[in-house]
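subagent[fold] <- orchestrator: predict structure for attached chain, return tokens only, no commentary.
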Amino acid sequence: MNQLESSAFTPSGPVSTLVLSDRLITLAQAADRAGFTGTAEQLITMACAVFDEAPQHKH
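subagent[fold] -> orchestrator:
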């Protein structure tokens, strides 16, 4: 992975669930194009699971 790619996926702070889901979908698309259909399906499942759990708020 070149420097541009690795810096694009290195968060500088907290990452929102929307950004995380978007990155997982982007990875799934790349995996699918590369012929890794099973991996792409797993990444899509993870992208959807990001929104399945209720956020934990600290009081």
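orchestrator: received. Logging for downstream: The chain has a mean pLDDT of 81. DSSP finds three helices and no strands in the chain.
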